[in-house]
Amino acid sequence: MAKYVIVGNSAGAIGAVEAIRQVDKEGSIVILSEEPYPVYSRPMISEYLAGEAGLDQMLYRPKDFYTRNQVETVLGRKVVSLDLANKQAKLDDGAAITWEKLLLATGGVPFVPRTPGQEKEGVYTFTTLDDAKRIRERIGQLQRVVVIGGGLIGMSVTEALTKLKAQVTVVELKERVLNLMLDEEGSRRVEAALAQRGVEVVVNNTVREIVGREDNPEAVGGVLLNDGRQIPCDAVIAAIGVIPRTELAAGTEIKVNRGIVVDRHMATSVPDVYACGDVCEGYDFVIQTNRVVPIWPSAYMGGRVAGFNMAGGEAEFSGGTSMNSLKYFGLSIISGGVVSPEASQDYEILTQVHPENGVYKKVVLKDDVVMGLIFFEDIDKAGIVYGLMRDKTDVSAFKSKLLTENFGFISFPKEMRKQRLGVG
Fold first, then answer.
1. In terms of Cα–Cα distance, which of 120, 125, 179 is closest to 153?
2. CB atoms near residue 336 (< 10 Å)
3. Strand partners for 290
4. Interatomic CA distance for residues 306 and 285, integer angstroms
5. For 106-138, how does the pLDDT look when each residue is reduced to its tens digit (9 = 90+)?
6. Upper half-sphere CA count for residue 275 (Cβ side, 13 Å)
7. Maximum Cα interatomic distance, the chain, rounded to a whole number of Å
8. Cα–Cα distance measured from residue 169 to residue 167, given in angstroms and rounded to the nearest whole number
9. Which domains does the chain have, with CATH numbers?
10. How far apart are CA 248 and CA 82, in angstroms?
11. Is the pTM above the cut of 0.85?
């Protein structure tokens, strides 16, 4: 038995533990995780693959985190089912653990479309440390790699592979890479940076079949695209994205749409059961409704909110939104919110371009409220603009200054400076 049982061991779980211990110093906490490792930073698995970081450098919290917070960990064990009536989580070794409060922080699983040949040796995903380990074990044999998906996961593994001198082809179903986090101009800049690194990008296409080698049909030898083109390769990495890992909730009273449905307290439809992170549909403060927002900061903050409420405190999730920061291929990029609004909607778009230094900035407004942003290269002020978006601040009095080089708190009206900083 445990007072608090957490299924999962990533950002949301850590946020929950830290919040619980602020309220309840003694209640027993058990973390159950299929992965055998202490909590590590998943965004760093590309650095592990590239040989730039080991597990010690990837740790999200110090090694003594669990002992300091009196957390019992059951690592390398999979939770196979939930018995909500008896409040039990059943493990793959036949054991069961009973909870008073349960947090589902199970994250997401890679989306891998059914493709003939996907069972061949040399087909990988790229969301966990073990994924990176499996690819790295074969890196000396991987001269040519096809990456399916031009999103964040695809870009991260592509950069790592180029550092390891592999020839990479990125195949993207949509018309451009990073189409969810960038507009056309932003994607064009990323594609140009990819080309400079020798990466071939194939858009408006997908892999129809993974074909075997002539001397070993059970191993990857190439891919056949929808347009009939064949690309030889030694490995295929499915990096299309992740989908909420909701199988534990399936068939139970826990309400599930695309992800597990939670309220602003991160509580599910079942008493004493909470969810956070990529597995759930949390509140998006930009579009002001619930949706899956699979980003690290939202998982951590959602976990904190869940932890406070599980321990008898009172906390409400103020919301997250799609917000990404990346430094791939020598580019520094921050984007968030609505970046490519539909022409039929009433948006105002501010842009600034400096071709000589690669700077590109864009702010999307609606009714004088920031709804989205893209910052290339000159990213120092992106955090301030993001704060205005988060707070739904009326920027009408200073919106002409949002993209200027010296924009900052001094650009705010006097009353706003007083309110935010306590100064005139």
1. 125
2. 25
3. 283
4. 18
5. 999 999 999 999 999 999 999 999 999 999 999
6. 27
7. 75
8. 7
9. 2-108+243-310 (3.50.50.60), 112-240 (3.50.50.60), 332-421 (3.30.390.30)
10. 6
11. yes
